[in-house]
User: Which sequence fits this backbone?
């Protein structure tokens, strides 16, 4: 079989050995244990000889297989080929086979055939059969990360010359793109990666964690060769990802990893180690391209650069839709603040200025209020807080003390208390210790910088700030009927206004998601605080002209266009009938859109919400959903990294357990050597080395050195002058 393998290698195919073991499905058609075929498959003659020779030893010692039980596998996906694996008799082939078989190179298998093709131009196919006609009972696709057996005792073998004439797969529309597959980069690209990360120094102590991992991850080759290979892969990838995050340079970490691997697996080849590093770098770079990186990293900064001015920002044309929007944009550009963030802060401030007596119509259920909460999201120093200052300059001037602007978040009880004042009797004294009436404060506008104040308050035992914000947003009663008179505070729904601007970093924004069961993230308008700015400075715009606001104490109910009403009610019917299911975070999107449209309407001096108001509000809320989904994705990515690190940790635990087994094996071997020399003194080191098989030969060297160092054995000289050994 080695000769067949050599012929395939000469044709440029990346091949590797697999076992022929039809009696054991766990190892049949599988490479040797610990052999990473995606990195180690090769077309180099010397490497093929080494791989197939080692496989013969591994298969015989581990599974009792003879040399003829080796087969040749081809990593065809890595060479740009795919195979349709028809694993059924010819009379059971699907009806579409005649459409493609004329262009195929046919390789006969034990139970069917492989139809081999080149990749179609521009497509890197996965192994999915999802787009193929009919069901998939016929077999499988072997695409980018697939391999097939092309020579063995149970099949005639594939002609290597025929492969050179392979044609592209004729039905590319049936193939699914391999969106998550990763090629190994070439070594020069690894060197470029070393250069790219050589100045990384954000968290250099992180590398100590790798050193600690490797210190405990010594494993043997005694049936657990894959453990060492898995640790190698995991640590190489973890180091690449952390280097991209700017924690520490990659090259020193890889040098340490190489020293460790040479120690725990001295029989390994340089090619095996380099192959894993090439894979790890490619995987880490692919994660950056896919956005699967974690907040706060250098890689995240790279991703953020693609986000600015991109899909998380409202498009340039949006700001031309209405004069007030153009003013908000120009004000943001003047102060180098993202217009989206200015808009979010402005909407929250304006909602506080709308009197509580002004209501949205009861399209579903009861009237709705203008209570409103924005969440401005960005990385550190991204312009979240200053967006509120820009919005403040643009809001209508109001000397009234009936609105408390820019308040820090407190408890829910404290928020309610701010709307109340103690009653005074005719003598000018408090009417009673628990006698309260409405104070003159009609609205409170909260600003939670970095979201920390809100998070701290919400995290306290018995805290109700989040529930109070949600109740106010929904126009429900704020407060609760406590058993104790001194803690009872009630604000009927719609009698007072609460609005909030929550400024939060992308790394901590997922903390808001934990309140999904209470309903907070569903009620927030998320706006992105990163953006591009004009190269030239512009002047801060003049104060916008606002229409007359509704009178403070005169009840006003807005009206809406019929089309808006019909759209809202149609969705409600679809949800109620089960025809439509809303996402976990989408339950209040229509009401949120109506609030935004209502604010745009009132600030324009109108009480009828037009379709244009609704259209603008819809675009704003759609972009809010994109920012929210970005936060959700970031949270999931962070959780995946935690799971990955935990998995790596479990691998280390496994490695530590395996190390214990290895040490016990070393102790047993040492005792056997001492006993042999005690019973039969004067033996050579070479004859004693035959006590272990080749797979454990590295253990003999370690044990021998320890026996000599501990003076349990000693060297003597025979009569012929040769080297002999005795036990002491």
Assistant:
């Amino acid at each position: 079989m080695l000769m067949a393998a050599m012929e395939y290698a000469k044709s440029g195919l990346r091949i590797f050995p697999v076992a022929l073991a039809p009696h054991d499905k766990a190892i049949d058609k599988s490479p040797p244990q610990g052999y990473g075929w995606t990195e180690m498959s090769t077309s180099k003659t010397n490497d093929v000889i080494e791989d197939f020779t080692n496989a013969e030893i591994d298969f015989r010692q581990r599974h009792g297989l003879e040399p003829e039980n080796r087969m040749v596998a081809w990593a065809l996906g890595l060479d740009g080929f795919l195979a349709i694996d028809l694993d059924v008799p010819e009379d059971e082939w699907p009806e579409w086979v005649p459409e493609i078989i004329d262009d195929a190179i046919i390789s006969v298998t034990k139970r069917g055939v492989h139809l081999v093709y080149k990749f179609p131009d521009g497509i890197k196919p996965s192994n999915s059969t999802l787009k193929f006609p009919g069901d998939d009972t016929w077999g499988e696709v072997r695409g980018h990360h697939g391999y097939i057996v092309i020579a063995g005792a149970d099949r005639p073998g594939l002609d290597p010359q025929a492969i050179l004439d392979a044609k592209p797969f004729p039905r590319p529309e049936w193939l699914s793109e391999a969106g998550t597959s990763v090629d190994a980069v070439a070594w020069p690209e690894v060197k470029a990666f070393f250069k790219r990360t050589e100045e990384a120094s954000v968290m250099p102590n992180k590398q100590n964690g790798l050193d600690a991992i490797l210190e405990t991850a010594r494993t043997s080759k005694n049936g657990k060769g894959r453990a060492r290979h898995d640790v190698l892969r995991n640590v190489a990838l973890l180091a690449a990802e952390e280097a991209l995050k700017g924690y520490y340079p990659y090259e020193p970490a890889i040098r340490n990893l190489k020293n460790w691997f040479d120690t725990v697996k001295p029989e390994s080849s340089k090619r095996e180690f380099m192959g894993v590093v090439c894979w790890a770098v490619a995987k880490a770079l692919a994660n950056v391209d896919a956005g699967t990186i974690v907040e706060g990293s250098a890689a995240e900064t790279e991703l953020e650069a693609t986000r600015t001015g991109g899909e998380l920002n409202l498009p340039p044309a949006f700001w031309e839709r209405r004069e007030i929007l153009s003013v908000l944009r120009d004000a943001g550009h003047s102060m180098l603040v993202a217009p989206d963030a200015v808009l979010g802060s402005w909407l929250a401030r304006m909602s506080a200025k709308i009197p509580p007596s002004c209501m949205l119509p009861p399209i579903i259920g009861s009237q709705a209020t203008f209570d409103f909460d924005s969440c401005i999201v960005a990385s550190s120093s991204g312009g979240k807080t200053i967006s509120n200052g820009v919005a403040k300059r643009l809001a209508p001037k109001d000397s009234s003390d009936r609105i408390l602007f820019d308040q820090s978040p407190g408890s829910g009880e404290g928020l309610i208390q701010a709307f109340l004042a103690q009653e005074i009797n005719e003598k000018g004294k408090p009417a009673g210790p628990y006698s309260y009436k409405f104070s003159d404060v009609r609205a409170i506008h909260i600003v939670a910088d970095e979201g920390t104040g809100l998070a701290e308050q919400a995290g306290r035992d018995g805290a109700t700030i989040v529930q109070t914000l949600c109740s106010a947003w929904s126009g429900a009663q704020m407060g609760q009927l406590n058993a104790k008179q001194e803690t009872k505070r009630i604000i009927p729904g719609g009698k007072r206004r609460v609005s909030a601007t929550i400024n939060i970093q992308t790394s901590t924004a997922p903390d808001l998601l934990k309140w999904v069961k209470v309903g907070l993230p569903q009620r927030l308008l998320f706006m992105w605080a990163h953006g591009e700015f004009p190269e030239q400075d512009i002047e801060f715009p003049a104060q916008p002209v606002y229409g007359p606001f509704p009178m403070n104490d005169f009840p006003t109910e807005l009206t809406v266009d019929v089309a808006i009403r019909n759209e809202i009610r149609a969705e409600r019917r679809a949800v109620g009938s089960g025809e439509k299911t809303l996402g976990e975070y989408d339950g209040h999107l229509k009401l949120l859109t109506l609030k935004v449209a209502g604010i745009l309407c009132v600030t324009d001096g109108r009480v009828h919400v037009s379709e244009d108001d609704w259209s603008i509000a819809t675009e704003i809320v759609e972009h809010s959903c994109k920012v929210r989904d970005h936060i959700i994705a970031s949270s999931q990515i962070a959780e995946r990294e935690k799971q990955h690190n935990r998995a790596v940790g479990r691998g280390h635990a496994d490695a530590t357990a395996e190390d214990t087994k290895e040490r016990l094996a070393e102790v047993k071997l040492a005792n056997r050597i001492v006993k042999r020399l005690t019973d039969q003194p004067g033996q050579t080191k070479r004859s004693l080395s035959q006590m272990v098989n080749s797979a454990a030969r590295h253990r003999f060297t370690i044990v021998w050195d320890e026996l000599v160092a501990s003076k349990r054995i000693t060297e003597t000289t025979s009569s012929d002058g040769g080297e002999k050994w005795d036990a002491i």
Summary: The first strand starts at residue 15 and ends at 19. The chain has four domains: 2-174, 187-290, 316-636, 655-727.
